[in-house]
Each structure stands twice: as structure tokens, then as C-alpha cells.
Amino acid sequence: METTNNPQIIDGKKTSATIKEEIAAEVVKIKAAGGKTPHLAAVLVGDDGASQTYVGAKVKACEQIGFTSTLVKLDADISEEGLLEEIEKLNSNADVDGMIVQLPLPKHISVQKVTEKIRPEKDVDGFTPANVGRMALNWPTYVSATPNGIMELIKRYNIETSGKHCVVIGRSHIVGSPMSILMGRNDNPGNCTVTLTHSRTKNLPEIARTADILIVAIGKAEFVTKDMVKPGAVVIDVGIHRVPDASKKSGFRLIGDVKFDEVAPLASAITPVPGGVGPMTIASLLYNTLMASQRKIYS
User: Fold this and answer.
1) What is the CA radius of gyration of the chain?
2) Looking at residue 297, what DSSP letter applies?
3) What is the pTM for the complete model shown?
4) In this structure, what CATH number is given to the domain that contains residue 80?
5) Which strands make up the sheet holding 98-101, listed edge to edge?
6) Is 102 a catalytic residue?
7) Which of 11, 97, 125, 237 is catalytic?
8) Catalytic site residue 125?
9) How far apart are alpha carbons 43 and 268 in whole angstroms?
10) Cα separation of 46 and 296, whole Å?
11) Domain with 151 in it: what CATH number?
12) What are phi and psi of 167, to 5 degrees?
């Protein structure tokens, strides 16, 4: 039976602005007490347009809240060894608290080697084996920015998770896999019964329809339709896609992995695209950098 209601819109833009204000206030206190200004370094390899936009937004966000930021721009044809040397410089720079290497990287560079080179205490993206392992063990760590942002939205919107069935669609190391671990651990948010699904899952629509909380990170535009959603479910849309739209000044509009207009009337709460999960990613990165500057995880 379909229901038509006005779902609660889970506003990541507003929530991320609140978190940035909280961090900025903390930075003012740290500086007033003569403490160290948090410092985030971002490494950008090549001239991919989307990557430049993402990194630019991260650098701008650092400036807004009083962090120091460094942008290391490298040519697309830099050797793997050359990039590893640049990372080592940031590793050994005592003033740099956190660093990120913007993905994707050129094909001739191993993401694994680059990730392993970053010191875990500076890995504010939460991608190194040490931090992923600590997350899986529910030890203090830097949780990768997008999953951390989703957990923060769930917490701040008081969405009940204990005992609920959470279905995650997508198994990437960046979102799907960590979300399945975080939602299942003995914590709040958490304590869900979790089903991790992906492109090879049989009967995916039927499984999705059993979800009290549906987290969609499959990377396919408008993949989830109303026939995949249980009335009253909470729907978290992690996808973001550009589609041509002549009516927009930019010539395109952004959509998610969920067919929003169709699914929203069924949901009790839903994240929009844009303005849902996306803005939370940068807020989480800033929070992790603040933790790194205070040596909260690796003392």
C-alpha cells in the first residue's frame, strides 16, 4: 500500500553549516589559549575538473573556519615515486595535522601505494589500513568522511537505528562497506541488522523493500524507484550525477541514486540531492582534522 506524505527532509547543507560553526568556535578557543591552528594539506594530481572543484571547496572551507590549508598541485604526468616523495614531505612536516590525496589518480599511479604511504595519524580521509581496521574494531579512529557524515546526520536528526533493518546498496570501500560496519556496531547510531547488497544481488528490489533504513551508494542515477522502498522507510541517497538540463544556467542539474520525486512521498525521512550527504563530507573532513590537531586519536 502506498502512502503519500511529506517526509522529513534531512538537510545536510544546514547541518554541515552548524558543524562548521561549532568547529570555528573551537578554533577561536584554541587560538585564544595559544594552541596550534589546525592545518589540512590537500594533494591534487592533474587537472580533472571535478577534483579541482572538490579540492577548492575543501580549501575554502578551511579558510572559513580558521584552519590553515595547503594545496599541493602536481602535474598529471608526475611519477608514482615523485608523488610518494611529496606525501613523505607532508608526513614529516610537523605543522601539517591532516592530509588528503584527491582521487581519482592518474592510471599509472597505484592508489594502494599512495594510501599506504600516508601516516595513519594524518589520514583524515580514514582510508589507510590502520584506520579502516580501527573502524571495524570500533576503536577510536578517523572514520572516512562520507560515512562519518551520514552517521552524524542520522544522529542529529534523532533517527532510531537500534533493532532496525538497514539495507545498504553498494559495497565500495569508501561508502558501502564502512556503512554496513558502522550501522551494525554496538553503538548509537548503530545496532541495526544490516544487509549489504550490490550489483550482483538477486532479488534486490524485494530486499530493499524490507529496509527500515535504506542507504543507497551504488553510483547509478535514479537506480532506486518507488517499488524498492517500504512505506515509512528512511532513505539516505549518497549518489550524485550531472544530467543535461537546458533550463538551467549551468546546462545541467544534479540527481542522486534515488528517484527522489517518486520515492519521497513514501519515505518518513529522506536526503535530497544536492544538499543532503554531499555537504557533510567536507564537514566530517574538517572535524577529523580538528581531532588530528589535538592528537585525539593517536596521542
Assistant:
1) 20
2) S
3) 0.93
4) 3.40.50.10860
5) 68-74, 39-45, 98-101
6) yes
7) 125
8) yes
9) 40
10) 33
11) 3.40.50.720
12) -110, 125
Query: Contact at 8 Å (CB) between 134 and 141?
Result: yes
Looking at 58, 117, 122, 164, which residue is catalytic?
A: 58
Does 52 qualify as catalytic in the annotation? no
- Domain of 226, in residue numbers: 144-278
Q: Which of 118, 93, 85, 88 lies closest to 103 in space, CA to CA? A: 118
In terms of domains, do 63 and 182 share one? no
270 and 161 in one domain?
A: yes
Give the C-alpha separation, 123 to 183, whole Å: 22
Specify whether 69 is located in the same domain as 167: no
d(CA 288, CA 1): 43
Identify the active-site residue in 102, 117, 212, 237. 102
My answer on whether 230 and 272 are in the same domain is: yes
* Mean pLDDT by groups of 10 residues along the chain of 299 residues: 75 98 98 97 92 90 96 97 98 97 96 98 96 95 96 98 98 96 97 97 98 97 97 97 89 94 97 96 96 90
